[in-house]
Design a protein that fits this description.
With 532 residues, this protein is mainly α. The chain has 23 helices and 2 strands. It folds into 2 domains: 183 residues, no CATH class; 245 residues, no CATH class. A two-stranded antiparallel sheet has the order 1-2.
């Protein structure tokens, strides 16, 4: 492998990230402007952005110049290495402003550099990977520059910052297609045009169109422009970071919830299908087996959740009060919270909206919340846990295993059962009219085994640091599936700030594994990968 090619391209990506940090930095300067320019670098919500942007631009330029001879090297290995190391590097840069803020705003042990950097890196990796698992206990106390940084990492990570770089940088010098394959979710990466740069531009163009549309609709619903932008970024990236401590529930608007529902649904669909639909080819969606399965899963899950909640209500107050919480409520506080959650499902319309919202939020791995689903009956909790594995469609911004892989695995299981009864049967796996070749089948089976295996390994490791089994198990799928909220100690109304430091680093790696589809990250640990 040509390491110079990796260093050169990572340097170019750092330059892009350094320039992007200027946006939240400008917001911080605007909010804290006193007329004294000399005082700007000392502002706690500005100084970190200045340092991060300067470091990224200067060090990135050094790498790009020092290793520019690596521009001409092409190869699969370089592409995968750039994606993995690029994401680690970009998360490090974005963590600088947040770490600076934590060090200067916290007291005691949580304010020292190790704890501050761990929390900062966890938060931005959660953003870039569109996981949406936050360590912040009081989000509303954060300055707007930090809130925008969180939203920006979501939006960049949703479609992929390297995909953005392919679209805006004319010559990265290394195999752009391998980087595209390593970053875009799903077992297949469709090229809409022969030119990869044009494909990347089209995908980002569709992404921007939907984002702008959601911003407009949320603003019309009474949400401030700033919050509308942040929530549109989080929705289209299927991320889940909100500017409210209560997530979308904090806005207490059925209109806003329905707007978010629509765009969560759209974000979970392959963006290639969106592009074709925008060009008038709606049959591309109706012919797509994955799209039909995606809709079938959503409809079935919504019906089940609605029926159980509408006819059965929440789980008993005695049982739910025993669920693990990092900061347990008093009996009076929990009773009030329980009654408030009951009120959300006291009518047909409200129950239906809650069912649709939370089902879509979990299926698409967005992670927004309008209800504390930790109070739901155990059957629904198990259903939500199962849906976390499904995820969105290939080529969407959703996480999880992806619907297409679930479809293929189901098809393989059915075929195997048929062959047991008819040993001579020749029945190729088909998705729609297309026969799936053996190479893709092996890829899907291998990925599925690795995904489930890594989920179990991460869950086992987390039980060493997290005192509650349900919390540890759901932390694993919530991070490797890029969902965000789990159950119990990391449920819809909880956060990850209390989780011990070693567990946070395990989850950081788990989030990256999930977002980069496992293979891209694991392949760099093979010794043969580094040989020329």
């Amino acid at each position: 492998m040509h390491k110079t090619a990796v260093a050169y391209t990572v340097g170019r990506l750092m330059q892009v990230m350094g320039l992007l940090l200027i946006i939240p930095m400008a917001i911080g300067i605007y909010d804290g402007w006193t007329g004294n320019i000399a005082a700007v670098p000392g502002e706690v919500d500005v100084g970190g952005f200045i340092g991060g942007a300067l470091f990224a631009i200067i060090f990135g330029s050094f790498l790009a110049l020092a290793f520019r001879r690596g521009r001409g090297y092409q190869g699969v290995k370089e592409g995968y290495a750039i994606v993995t190391f690029g994401w680690f590097a970009l998360a490090f840069i974005a963590a600088i402003p947040l770490c600076y803020f934590f060090i200067h705003s916290r007291t005691g042990e949580s304010g020292n550099i190790l704890f501050a950097f761990t929390d900062a890196y966890f938060e931005v990796m959660s953003g870039f990977t569109t996981t949406g698992a936050t360590i912040l206990a009081d989000i509303e106390a954060m300055p707007r520059s930090i809130l925008f940084l969180r939203a920006l990492t979501h939006w960049l990570g949703g479609m992929g910052i390297i995909t953005l770089a392919i679209a805006i940088l004319p010559t990265l010098g290394v195999s752009g297609y391998q980087m595209f394959r390593g970053e875009v979710p799903g077992p297949s990466k469709d090229k809409l045009t022969p030119r990869l740069k044009q494909t990347a531009s089209i995908l980002w163009g569709v992404y921007v169109i939907f984002t702008v549309a959601e911003v407009i609709l949320l603003t019309l619903g009474g949400m401030s422009l700033f919050d509308s932008v942040c929530h549109a970024f989080a929705t289209m990236a299927t991320g889940g970071f909100s500017n409210s401590n209560r997530s979308i529930a904090g806005y207490e608007s059925a209109y806003i919830e329905w707007v978010v529902i629509i765009f969560m649904y759209l974000a979970g669909i392959n963006f290639v299908l969106h592009f074709r639909a925008l060009r008038g080819d709606f049959t591309a969606m109706t012919r797509n087996s994955e799209f039909r399965f995606y809709n079938g899963v959503i409809v079935a899950a919504v019906v089940i959740v609605f029926c159980v909640l509408y006819f059965g209500g929440l789980d008993s107050i005695q049982d739910t009060s025993q669920h693990f919480r990092n900061q347990p409520m008093t009996t009076a506080e929990f009773s009030e919270h329980y009654r408030a959650e009951e009120a959300k499902i006291d009518s047909f319309g409200d129950t239906f909206r809650v069912a649709v919202f939370q089902t879509l939020s979990i299926v698409t791995t967005t992670g927004f919340a309008t209800a504390d689903f930790d109070l739901w009956p155990s059957f629904l909790l198990l259903l939500l846990l199962t849906l976390m594995f499904f995820g969105g469609c290939a080529g969407s911004t959703g996480g999880g295993m992806k619907m297409i892989r679930i479809v293929i695995v189901f098809q393989m299981a059915i075929n195997q059962l048929r062959k047991l009864a008819q040993p001579r049967l020749v029945a190729p796996i088909k998705i729609g009219r297309e026969t799936i070749d053996d190479k893709l089948l092996i890829n899907v089976v291998t990925f599925s085994v690795l995904f489930v295996g890594l989920y179990v390994i991460v869950a086992c490791l987390l039980t060493l640091f997290i005192p509650d089994l349900t919390t540890a198990v759901t932390c694993s799928i919530a991070t490797i599936g890029n969902i965000g909220p789990g159950l119990s100690g990391v449920g819809a109304t909880e956060h990850y700030g209390w989780v011990p430091l070693p567990a946070k680093w395990i989850m950081v790696f788990s989030m990256l594994l999930g977002r980069l589809e496992i293979f891209t990250v694991l392949v760099i640990f093979r010794a043969s990968f580094w040989r020329k």
